[in-house]
């Protein structure tokens, strides 16, 4: 069957990139599920931002991730329920909510930085290693590479997933 999104080229570039992003996140989620990590792959950038930048107001956290504030607020709520982040009031402005990692959140990020993120990054780099040429050809190569061996299988191949 024809891949209509692929065949429409630049007309559907956004849809194509979204599809790639969703596939990469789904593949990464399978890795996280095998490791019994309680966090969704889409929430790791938020944890990484707090790790890199320290406690932040919700608006600045959203800005650092380049996503809408309501999405960050939802993720913060879910992560707070898991005990990985906490939300407190700013010392200067009681209306501002400051998000920070909890001790458990810091521990999870430290383990992820050591044991999970490098492996996923290596698997994606492996997927993209032989790319060259025009963007659409590169996207096709990425899509073909993911179809042939999703990220979770690439991580397994590298012996990265702890059972």
The major pleated sheet works out as: 3 strands, antiparallel
* SSE succession: HHHEHHEEHHH
The span between the termini is: 37 Å
The total beta strand count reads 3
Sheet with the most strands: spatial strand order: 1-3-2
Apparent shape: globular
**Portion in helices:** 55-70%
**Runs with pLDDT <50, length 5+?**
none
Strand content: 5-15%
Secondary-structure content class: mainly alpha
The number of helical runs is 8
Mean pLDDT: 90
- Radius of gyration, Cα only, in angstroms? 18 Å
Structure report:
The chain has 8 helices and 3 strands; from the N terminus they run αααβααββααα. The chain has helices at residues 4-7, 13-34, 44-53, 58-65, 69-81, 103-128, 135-148, 151-157, and strands at 56-57, 85-89, 97-101. The mean pLDDT is 90. It is mainly alpha-helical and 163 residues long. The radius of gyration is 18 Å and the shape is globular.
Briefly characterize the structure.
With 163 residues, the chain is mostly helical.
Structure keywords:
single chain; mainly alpha; 64% helix; 7% strand
List the helices and strands and how they pair.
Layout: H1 4-7, H2 13-34, H3 44-53, E1 56-57, H4 58-65, H5 69-81, E2 85-89, E3 97-101, H6 103-128, H7 135-148, H8 151-157
Antiparallel strand pairs: 1-3, 2-3
Helix pairs in contact: 2-7, 2-8, 4-5, 6-8
